[in-house]
Amino acid sequence: MGEQKKTTIILFSGDYDKVMAAYIIANGAAAYDHEVTIFHTFWGLNALRKDEPIQADKGFIEKMFAKMMPRGANKLGLSKMNYAGFGPKMIKDVMKKHNAMPLPDLIDMAKEQDVKLVACQMTVDLFGLTHEEIMEGVEFAGVAAYLADAENGNVNLFI
Amino acid sequence: MGEQKKTTIILFSGDYDKVMAAYIIANGAAAYDHEVTIFHTFWGLNALRKDEPIQADKGFIEKMFAKMMPRGANKLGLSKMNYAGFGPKMIKDVMKKHNAMPLPDLIDMAKEQDVKLVACQMTVDLFGLTHEEIMEGVEFAGVAAYLADAENGNVNLFI
Amino acid sequence: MGEQKKTTIILFSGDYDKVMAAYIIANGAAAYDHEVTIFHTFWGLNALRKDEPIQADKGFIEKMFAKMMPRGANKLGLSKMNYAGFGPKMIKDVMKKHNAMPLPDLIDMAKEQDVKLVACQMTVDLFGLTHEEIMEGVEFAGVAAYLADAENGNVNLFI
Fold this sequence. Notes:
Three copies of one chain form a homotrimer.
Chain A: E1 6-11, H1 16-31, E2 35-40, H2 60-68, H3 86-97, H4 103-112, E3 116-120, H5 121-126, E4 139-141, H6 143-150, E5 155-158
Parallel strand pairs in A: 1-2, 1-5, 2-3, 3-4
Helix pairs in contact in A: 1-4
């Protein structure tokens, strides 16, 4: 282990609350000079989708996946007490009241702090997404790249 | 990394089974002389709520949150097979049969073993809870305190 | 920390997608010469159940648990978009289309790469399972064994 502290997060979940937790930890760690990577896999990838629909040539299952999954951070549901979308609204209201940052701002802040945002290429393929559907400034990589980051630090989380 | 082994758990989940897993690992690690911290955030905070209702002056959304969320370890649901509360009863029955400790006892044991129990202050604010609603012996802190614990150990889990 | 890199995963979840993520990380880490352990606890134990029913002398609750829980990797549901079993079929179809390995093959591959598969003895007792119901090549151990593996490595995940 060198001098540089590292935080490496696998973000598997696409729940608004869990994605928020991941980005709060990431932003905190970056503020304390950790080298931070968030590796977005499976449902976590949805946090990185652009919120406008992207034209792409796809097969049937890929179209269904793309349609059923939330497009971007602002559309995600809660892991608990989702109540058909009412839960996320309550959380967002209460966050606004307490001047807490909404998720899209937390993601912007992470980018500004040079948190490395990685999209799992295997998931991109599996869900039939294209690179054009993913927001700018995201790298595409696999489990080997994750391990290279994780094995040299010790704050390694799976969220 | 010094000589002292450390286990630092972020407890995000408020599911009975996951909270139980967190406390079993924490108690095990404490028994093997690890310095152990459980950082309770989001739904995980509910495990630390006192089980009697506390009078507090709150806004509407805060009252709703406080009402809808389970009050204390014994009221939590299961992550799987909850079956409207029947699942937790089954688990508790089978635990009693096998002389396994119920969750409130696991929490008491953690306190006796000097496991540091931390409540995320941001979550306390967000859910509109007051310090009086949280059990005795709990510290209040944020992501900076979490990182200070986590970056010097290597058993770091997000549950 | 010695020369040998270590990846130690607590697999708590029994969701098809999360179990798949655990085994993909484990196989990746093994390919990069990590010493890898997957410690299966709670619902994660279901991934190790043999898929044929095993005759065993059990009490009523144990029989109910054994009946309600999925028997083996191929029967698991998804954490999201399960749609009464339709989700796993979609995932499996799309995996086949992209030549991705189905879960039972990922488990076989892990065994071939000497990933240590551990079943949590406390969970085995709690769910009233017998060792005969668990696939060959699995060790039975507790939290002490987990800690012994985890405290000497730094890629420690709870899935």
